[in-house]
Design a protein that fits this description.
415 residues, alpha/beta, Rossmann fold, 7-stranded mixed β-sheet, 6-stranded parallel β-sheet, disordered C terminus, binds NADP nicotinamide-adenine-dinucleotide phosphate
């Protein structure tokens, strides 16, 4: 595991200015670079391979339009398989409906599109209804897939999607966590029925445990006291054991189902691999005892892309219903699909676990903002061991970017 720790001198200064602003009652003063019209970002103007990634300094700054929005200067972002998929057009039909229901027939209205679902950064501006955050607060967030992403200098989100970044993590480290954390919690809690109070006597199997979701899920489940078995390649065994995995099955060393069948049955399976996994995994669950199979690899968005919104949703719904019905009636196990759900309050709990040293960031690689195509290339190679992070703001840029805050503070002190 290669974890990075970066000193961003700005952090302390920003916190100080934030307090000064709060003291002077300037909570809602626009401390963002409001005089600037455009920002730097990596965008795509069409779907395709890495050749479609384009850097520009001329993307409109996402200003605050609603009372509960906060504008964040991005310090670091991370990449996920979803970014690769969205670059190729995955989910476009459903996401465009969510982006703008009225212009769903207007092809290409989503461009220029900014990818990147995770961020760690600093609040620079707040809408008049924001109650939890102030300019200068260090925050992290997972960004809903229909919103503009974090491969940009600024992102605007609602305050409910944002959480205070763990104090013990650098921005680079923090950016590696929100998306996989929100995904894992959605899968394990909402679909898998697990929580801190009920996990201690549970046996959980995680397939594909060496990637982003898996490395987070192992740590969360161990923090909750579950017994965790994982599947991964042989060369990832040290990583997953280091994160707490109790039993490790090397899927490259023969029939993985056969190896797992020799073990005690599981209460919950979190499937990060998909494909034919569910064909053999259902039989590994304890029958007639409320056990659950939860997969993160569902055909919903592929269906809506290929069949259209209505047919695709109906087809996916029917598939889910049939599989769920068949499994509950034949062996009493629940079959479920899970999806990532951006959620600030959930990240608050993760932040506490990170500050308590129970969740460690697993940063496999980091790239400067100038090398976003190389970061995508890394992701495309597969075999992730944790996360790939992009450092969006250089340290001295952090400082530069807050010159406007200093001006606001100085102005405020005159009154
Ligand atoms: N539904 C949702 O909202 C949602 C949200 C997040 C993620 N996902 C999906 O969930 C999956 C996992 O996400 P992630 O971010 O963790 O992906 P990732 O970071 O790319 O990790 C995948 C891991 O699985 C390992 N792997 C590949 N084939 C395997 C196999 N047959 N058995 C065991 N391990 C295997 C890979 O390493 P090796 O190839 O070296 O073994 C890699 O470490 C992806 O398909 C992603 O698209 C869905």
């Amino acid at each position: 595991m290669a974890s990075t720790r970066v000193l961003c001198l700005f952090n302390g200064r920003a916190a100080g200015w934030s307090k000064a602003l709060a003291r002077t009652g300037c909570r809602n003063v626009c401390s963002s670079p409001s005089r600037l019209q455009s920002m730097s970002a990596w965008v795509i103007d069409q779907y395709g391979s890495s050749a479609v990634l384009r850097h520009t300094d001329e993307i409109s700054i996402p200003t605050i339009n609603f009372a509960h929005e906060v504008m964040i200067k991005v310090s670091a972002a991370s990449l996920n398989p979803l970014d690769l998929n969205m670059r190729g057009g995955y989910g476009a039909a459903l996401l465009n409906l969510r982006r703008d229901p009225l212009s769903v027939m207007n092809s290409f209205s989503e461009f220029p599109l900014i990818l990147g679902r995770d961020l760690s950064g600093v609040v620079v501006d707040c809408g008049s209804g924001v109650t939890h955050f102030a300019p200068g607060d260090e925050v992290w967030a997972a960004i809903p897939p229909w919103k503009q992403g974090s491969l940009a200098e600024y992102v605007t989100l609602t305050e409910y999607e944002v959480s205070y970044k763990p104090k013990s993590l650098s921005h680079i480290e923090a950016a590696s966590i929100p998306y996989v954390a929100n995904t894992a919690l959605s899968a394990l809690v909402n679909a898998g029925g697990l929580c801190r109070e009920t996990s201690s006597n549970k046996r959980v199997l995680i397939t594909g445990a060496s990637g982003g979701v898996g490395t987070f899920s192992i740590q969360l489940l161990k923090a909750w006291g579950a017994h965790v078995t994982v599947t991964c390649s042989q060369n990832a065994e040290g990583l997953v054991r280091g994160l707490g995995a109790d039993e490790v099955v090397d899927y490259t060393a023969g029939d993985v189902a056969e190896q797992l069948e020799r073990m005690e049955r599981f209460d919950v399976i979190l499937d990060n691999v998909g494909g034919d996994t569910e064909e053999w995994a259902m039989g590994l669950l304890k029958p007639w005892s409320g056990a659950k199979y939860v997969t993160l690899v569902s055909p919903l968005l592929l269906n809506t892309d290929s069949m259209g919104l209505l047919d695709g949703t109906l087809h996916a719904g029917l598939t889910l219903h049939n599989k769920a019905f068949q499994n509950i009636t034949s062996s009493g196990v629940f079959y479920r699909w899970a999806f990532y759900a951006p959620d600030g309050p959930t990240l608050d709990e993760v932040s506490r676990l990170a500050d308590a040293g129970k969740i460690l960031p697993v940063v496999e690689a980091q790239f400067p903002f100038t090398q976003v195509p190389q970061a995508f290339h890394k992701l495309e190679q597969g075999h992730a061991r944790g996360k790939t992070v992009v450092k969006v703001a250089e340290d001295d840029e952090c400082i530069e970017a807050t010159e406007s805050e200093r001006e606001v503070q100085e102005t405020a002190q005159q009154y």
